[in-house]
Backbone:
């Protein structure tokens, strides 16, 4: 048996207003639902990016609802991004005074551009070839 | 501008041997690379699931490598899974004495099956229709 494709990728942020602004207005993700201050959900291509308030999500107690979870510290996510798109992102981040955290030219080929979301999560834009995946 | 599809989904686990066993042997994911005790990477369908040791990943200091990140507490991930597949997973978890954490029948339709990975991350198997996504 083999699990199906990933349906939900999760990040945590205590300030969901700031998180929503970053993922919706800067990265262009479509908001699917929001329950302030507990979560904001994005539908992105054929899957979901879910941003939860870590403490409020960890405190879930309803036995017929989803089980609790919640992590603190900086998480990480990466979006597919060609070199040309990375150049566009660099301009977009500069226009919005978002600092570039790191640029990595991988020894095996391929490039990654890193910024931080408002919660401090590491957000990467990478060529898919860094994982030997087709573009 | 709109970010490309998610390329990397991240979880954290201090015991990467146990994490590898769970994701490789129980869930059937393909190991792409492993550097004990810092990370184990899985190539899954057209993307990556990366499991990092949170403290060792947060302690990265090389200025030409990836920036540090690392979260503690239970994270969350969800895999696409039809009802028939969820029934298969239930049998598989029973055979491996992995407890079912929760089953949720969503008010809007669709079902989720939850277990915990060895690090305590909440691992969900859900019908894609819970997000109005096609199967």
Residues:
């Amino acid at each position: 048996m083999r699990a199906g494709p990933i349906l939900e990728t999760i990040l945590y942020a205590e300030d969901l207003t700031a998180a929503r602004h970053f993922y919706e207005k800067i990265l262009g993700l479509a908001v699917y639902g929001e329950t302030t201050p507990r979560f904001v959900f994005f539908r992105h291509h054929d899957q979901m990016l879910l941003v939860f308030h870590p403490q409020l999500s960890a405190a879930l107690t309803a036995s017929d609802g989803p089980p609790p979870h919640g992590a603190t510290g900086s998480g990480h996510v990466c979006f597919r991004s060609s070199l040309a798109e990375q150049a566009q992102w660099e301009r977009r981040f500069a226009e919005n005074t978002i600092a570039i955290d790191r640029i990595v030219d991988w020894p095996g080929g391929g490039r990654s551009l890193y910024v931080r979301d408002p919660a401090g999560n590491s957000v990467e834009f990478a060529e898919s070839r860094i994982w030997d995946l087709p573009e």
Remarks:
- Chain B touches chain A through 64 residues (CB under 8 Å).
- The mean pLDDT of chain B is 96.
- The domain at 1-61 of chain B is CATH 3.10.180.10 (2,3-Dihydroxybiphenyl 1,2-Dioxygenase; domain 1).
